[in-house]
Structures are given as C-alpha cells and as structure tokens.
Amino acid sequence: MQETILILDFGSQVTQLIGRRLRELNVYCEIHPYNKILEITSDIKGVILSGSPSSVRDDKAPFADLSNIKGRLPLLGICYGAQFMAHHFGGEVNSSLAREYGRAMLTVVEEDNILFRGVSKTSQVWMSHGDTIARLPKNAHVIAKTDDVENAAYKIDGEDTWAVQFHPEVFHSKEGPKMLENFAMNICGCHGNWTPDSFIDTTVEAMRAKLGNDKVILGLSGGVDSTVAAVLLNKAIGKNLTCIFVDNGLLRKNEFEDVLDSYKDLGLNVIGVHAGNLFLSKLAGVTDPEAKRKAIGSTFIDVFEAEAKKIEGAKWLAQGTIYPDVIESVSVNGPSCKIKSHHNVGGLPEKMNLKIVEPLRTLFKDEVRRVGRALGIKRELVGRHPFPGPSLGIRILGEVTEEKLRILRDADDIFIRGLREWKCELPSASYPNEMADNLYDSIWQAGTMLLPVKSVGVMGDERSYEYTIALRAVISTDGMTADWVHLPYEFMAKVSNDIINKVKGVNRVCYDISSKPPATIEWE
Q1: Of the chain's two ends, which shows fewer C-beta atoms within 10 Å, N or C?
Q2: Cα 443–21–54 angle (5° rounding)?
Q3: CA angle, 193 as apex, 191 and 198 as ends, to 5°?
Q4: Torsions phi, psi for 274 (to 5 deg)
Q5: What angle (nearest 5°) sits at the alpha carbon of residue 498, between those of residues 492 and 500?
Q6: N- to C-terminal Cα distance for the chain?
Q7: What's the whole-number mean pLDDT along residues 155-161?
Q8: pLDDT tens digit sequence for 3-33
Q9: What fold, for 196-382?
Q10: What angle do CA 192, 195, 43 make, to 5 degrees?
Q11: Alpha-carbon distance 224 to 221, whole Å?
Q12: Is the separation of the CB atoms in 18 and 7 below 8 Å?
C-alpha cells in the first residue's frame, strides 16, 4: 500500500508545485480535479485544497464535497482552499481593500502549532488573493497573521484541519517547504519512503502482473522519457518488448546512428527504420507550422503501424507519458487551450487495436531522470535535453528541404558540441543538487533555428546574401515556463564565428532572448 496525499485542484496555476514540493520529500501525491474526488481509501493519508483564480463568492465558484474528508482525514486548505472552508463552514469571506499580491511577512501567533514546527516566528510568504477571510468559523482560531491580513492562517478546533491564505508551495515562501513537510510528515504521518528504488520495484512488479506474457511495442525517440520507459519495461518483461526507432529524416546530425549505438549497452530489442524520404515527400510545399506537425505526426503513425504489424501477437503500445501530461488531460476546465498539437502517437492505439501501458504516468520529468539513474542508464542519455517530436521540421521556419536540413544540422551540431565542450561551474539543470561539468548540462534545452530570411553580408571581400541562424537556450524545470540563458559572450562569439565560417549558406547568427511566456521554447 502506497502512502498518498490527495491534492484537489481548484484551477490554480501553481497546483503542480504543491505536488512537486511533496515529491521532493519522497512523499507520493496525486492531483485530481476538485469535482472528481477519488474514493477515500486507507492509503490516502491527507488532503490538500489548492488555490484558484475564482472567488468563493462567485455564483459558479468551484465547490468540492468534503463530507468524507473534513474531520476524518488531515486537511490543509491553501489560499482559495482556506477561503472555501471558511465560507462554507460558518465563516465569512469578503472582497477587501486589504488585498495582498506578492511578498508579505507572516507572523506566527501560535508558535507551538504543529504546522509551524521549526518555522521562524516571522518569515516571508507569497500572497495572491483579492478576497480575504473577514470572520473565521466559530470552531476555528488564528494561528498566523500578516500586517494586512488578520486571518492569514487558522486551525479548526477538534479536527486535523488547517488553512493558510498564502502559497507555501512557491519559491518566494521561504519556509513554505517546512510547513508542507510538517503537514505531510508530522500531521499526516507519511514516512517519505517513495524513492526511485521503491518506484522501480513496485512498477516492475505491477507491469509483470498487468502484461503477463503479452508482447509490447514501444516507440523510442532517444529522449529521456521513452528511454526510461523502455528500460523499466525491459526489466519487467524482457524479450516480449520490441522498441521501434523511426528515422524521420528530420533528426540531428548523426542522431539515428548515435542513438542506436547508445542503446546497445541497455539490452533492449531495438528495430531501426529509415523513412526520411517518405517524411520529406509529405512535407514538400508545406509551410504552415501546424500543417507540418500534422503531416509529420500522421506519417509517423503510418510508418510505425507498418513496422509494428510485423510483430506477431503484440497487444500493448507503451508510451512515455509523464505526470504533467496526465494532469493536463484532466485539468479542472478540460485540456488547456491548444498552442500546438502534441507529437505523441495519437491515432495508433485505436487504429491498431492496441491497449496502452504508461509506466511513467505518475512521474514528473526530474523524477524520470532520478529513476533513470537508479536503473543504471548512462548520464548522457538521462541528462539529454528535451527534443521535439517533429524534430528539425519545426526548427526550419517555412518549407523543409534537403538543403535547409543540411544547413541546420551543421549549425546545430556546432552549437550543441560547443555547449558540451565548454567547461563551467554552474548548477545542473537535470540535477539541481549537483554541479554541471559543462554548459550543456547547466541548460534545460538548447537548439538552433533556420529563419526564412536572407540578409546581405561580406565574405571574402565579396557580397553574400545568405540565411540567418537563431540560437536558443533556456532554463526551466518542466518546460511549462522558461527563461533564456545568459551564455558567456566568449562562447557566443566562438560559436557564431564557427557557424559562419564552417556552414555554407549562413552569414548571420542571432540569439533568442525571449522567455516563455510570451514566447514558446520552439519557434513553431
């Protein structure tokens, strides 16, 4: 039985952070919409109510039935969650001039309260609310306040129920992690035993029970998620797993051969498929980004299906789906507004009559990497940057051609090799508690874009009119938000000079200094 804390999501933009903070404590948790509460079983040790952009005073404010939770299980309301409990259990919530957005100084009123054990008398927290709790329920008392908000935190008497109007999960709440630790460990009684090793053991056992002697097909990409999923399944079912790696003709320089070579030591049964000419034929004349994505996706399905049909008796399709994908698909208001179509193998299960198995569906990206290391996967594979499913097809703005692919591959190879070779002492992007040996490991994702514009230059005392390359490097934790990396000027100068001198067809290099949002990480 896995100890679990249930997080009910009322639509906050930072609900995932609550989950991440608990996972950092090796406490397993699951995020579910407020209106889809799970059956409360013995493995659920406590419940957290998230924040929300809504007001509890709105006619259509999110409402959760807590009849099987409040007073029965440890309960913590955060921001909207705190106001929700005050509003529905005898208190009063008003719109007030005493609104707080941003940093505030919290003063603990009840210093011996278990929620604040080991927390300073005063500490910085992050507020984000327009409403305020004007009056607490009769059976509640204040345990912390700020200069502007009297009821910044409260406790329900006679129950293991707490509430805070600030966000302990965000970075700016300096001692917020300690409060969440107190709730998880000291109040809920969790033991913090959800580790990569325990995940591997339970997942392998579950996969064996689920799959039996059935055959499974998995589409490898060379990325972290599909690699870790493959090694986990291989550990569970061995020879009954067949991995297919499709060369879509849009991969990085030498990537097809390098990826296949990197899998040799993992004992995987991998089939490599060359299909570049087919993909390029489907992209001929296509310039719209979404049309390109769809053409690449549908062609992949056709190629994958044809190859998979050669494997007799296959009943399952394995996917490297991770937890942010799962949360997104069952979000409070349905899937978020579509910015770009997903590159996963969407139509395959229905088309091929296969069942889906997703061994990583409970993990965040950083947890996938931790599991990968525990499985003994080489650091260069586990620490590989995310790479888009449509590959270089969406890093060439406009129509994709063989000549443009040559230019982009050569420029990209110089950039990525340069990042790997440039020594530095910076925190690792993949492993925050470790230091990176080079620029590549200090970055979440880097890539090169070929722009659909040419500009005038001077090369060899002659006029040139050639393409522009844009370099992109960002730091992030999960790809949902990202900021551009301040690469050393000396490095940028060397890379720019090498690209212009060594890549025929380029006479100008730019660096993308836009963050996400408003920009996306990829240009298409």
Answers
A1: N
A2: 105
A3: 160
A4: -90, 120
A5: 100
A6: 44
A7: 96
A8: 999 999 998 888 888 998 999 899 999 999 9
A9: Rossmann fold (3.40.50)
A10: 55
A11: 9
A12: yes
